[in-house]
Structures are given as C-alpha cells and as structure tokens.
Amino acid sequence: MWKVLLVEDEVFVRESVREIIAWEELGFSVSGEAGNGVEALEMMRRDTPDLVITDIIMPEMDGVELLKQARAEGYESRFVMLTCMSEFEYVRQAMEYGASNYILKLSMSVNSLRDTLRKIRQELLSREQMTGAGNAAGREGSAMEAGKAGSPAAAGSAQSPGPSSQRPADKGPLPLLHEAVTSHPEIQKILHYIHTNYAEDITVKSMSQYVVMGENYVSTLFKKKTGYTLIHYLHQVRVNHAIQYLCDSDLPVYEIGNRVGFVNDNYFIKIFKRFTTQTPSQYRQTVKGKVEEKRALL
C-alpha cells in the first residue's frame, strides 16, 4: 500500500476526502492527517508518505510552502493540491515545484479523486520500475565512470575533506553514487561545491545564489542534468562519507552525522537508512562482522 498524508485545516473537508474513497482498492492507505504545513512536514520527517494531498491556503505554513520545504529536504513524495477558483497563482507555483495535479474543492467528486489517484498510482509504479532499472545500470556504469578520473570534473569531485576515498574490499561497497559530470558550467560548479563542502549548510537557495541563477531554474536544471534532485544528490555524498567514517574510525554515530553535515541525529539515521537499508550502527556492525569472518578464514 502507498501511504497518503492528508493536509487540510478544515476538518470536515479532510474527513470528506478520507471517507469518499475506498483507498485500499486503489492501492493506497491514509497513514496520517495534519491541519497545516508545519504539522505535515514534521510527520513527513517521521514517516515519509508516497502521496501528500494538501490544501493550498492554510495557517502557519501553506501548501505551496510545504511542497517547497519538502523538495528542499529531498522528499520525493507526490503532491496533489486542493484549491479554490481564486488560487490559481498558487497552483502555478505548486506545479513548478513538481506537484502532480490539483483538484478544485468546490467540484471535488469521487470520480475526480479516483482519476487523480489512478494517475498517481501510475507515476509511483513508473518510479519503482525506473529505480530498479537505474540501480542495475548504475552498477554497470560505475566502472566506466572510474575511467573519467583524469577529467577536471572528476578531479573536483574527489577533492572532499574527511577520510580517504580508498577503501579495502572487505569493507563492502559504498551506496550507489553517480559522480555526475555535465558540460553545463553552473551545474558542474554546484557539483564541485557539493563534493568539496558537503558538511556545510547547503540548500537549493544557497546554490542558486552561488551561481547567480533563479532558484526554480537551478532546481529543474540540476535534476535534468544529473537525474537527481540537488538535495538527494547531497544526501548521497554525505552518506558515502559517513560510511567511510563508520568503517575507518571509532567515532560515535552522532559525531559522524555532524561531521558530514547532518545536525539532527534522527534525520541522519533516517537518511542513512534510506540509502543503505541499515542504521549507521547496524552498518558498522555488519562491516566489522565481515572483517572478523575474513580474518578467521586466514
């Protein structure tokens, strides 16, 4: 089941959306409800939904800002915006940030919501298929990327402070990380900055200011040139360096998270597990176990 988060400050509207649909028949389940964007973002951090259905106009944090913040933090959840006739400028902004669809609240019906959920279901299925194919292709392409090590872009990617990137084979592979190389000078400049300054506070906004380009344009262009959102790519870089620390040092997990740029311990653990399927502590124990097994065979 794909998880759905309902975000709406008017309780009766939220209840209506929840009750008019047989969610399970379409492969969804309502995993949470929130009354504004602030509550919703906290819930997303604890349990990331596959789909967020959110009102646009809400107190504290509106739906568009929720979408912006979610994208800035690397969440790839699908978004559907609930809107009134007078809110189309907000809808336009939401679509720029990757919202999948919008529904007019005044004309919302079972059919319109079902049609939207079918559309989202196809998007989620396509994403799963592409992720599986991309992982296989990435493993095959990693050796080819190594051959580009002499290029200026690859050299820039290698200049990262912290532990050495040379790792014994018995420590296991790093999670898949495409050392992205692009001919676009501004995006290449951002890539070099990320690999060199991954422990700093890096956001889409700060990178757009760094290359003197519009925030929305940078976000779209980075995804187009690398295949990743900027924050997703940053997380991959940080997790790779965290793995090096876990394998090559006895530093506590919270210290490693801080060194690679995660100021929140729980968030570090969540992102690390998203890429490796293990918590940092579990990963360290797995590596140590493999090393001990190999030593016992010698």
From TrEMBL:
<feature type="domain" description="Response regulatory">
    <location>
        <begin position="3"/>
        <end position="120"/>
    </location>
</feature>
<keyword id="KW-0597">Phosphoprotein</keyword>
<feature type="domain" description="HTH araC/xylS-type">
    <location>
        <begin position="188"/>
        <end position="286"/>
    </location>
</feature>
<keyword id="KW-0238">DNA-binding</keyword>
<keyword id="KW-0805">Transcription regulation</keyword>
<feature type="modified residue" description="4-aspartylphosphate">
    <location>
        <position position="55"/>
    </location>
</feature>
<dbReference type="InterPro" id="IPR018060">
    <property type="entry name" value="HTH_AraC"/>
</dbReference>
<dbReference type="InterPro" id="IPR009057">
    <property type="entry name" value="Homeodomain-like_sf"/>
</dbReference>
<protein>
    <submittedName>
        <fullName>Response regulator</fullName>
    </submittedName>
</protein>
<dbReference type="InterPro" id="IPR020449">
    <property type="entry name" value="Tscrpt_reg_AraC-type_HTH"/>
</dbReference>
<keyword id="KW-0804">Transcription</keyword>
<dbReference type="Pfam" id="PF00072">
    <property type="entry name" value="Response_reg"/>
</dbReference>
<dbReference type="InterPro" id="IPR011006">
    <property type="entry name" value="CheY-like_superfamily"/>
</dbReference>
<dbReference type="Pfam" id="PF12833">
    <property type="entry name" value="HTH_18"/>
</dbReference>
<dbReference type="InterPro" id="IPR001789">
    <property type="entry name" value="Sig_transdc_resp-reg_receiver"/>
</dbReference>
<keyword id="KW-0963">Cytoplasm</keyword>
<feature type="region of interest" description="Disordered">
    <location>
        <begin position="131"/>
        <end position="175"/>
    </location>
</feature>
<dbReference type="InterPro" id="IPR051552">
    <property type="entry name" value="HptR"/>
</dbReference>
<feature type="compositionally biased region" description="Low complexity">
    <location>
        <begin position="146"/>
        <end position="167"/>
    </location>
</feature>
<keyword id="KW-0902">Two-component regulatory system</keyword>
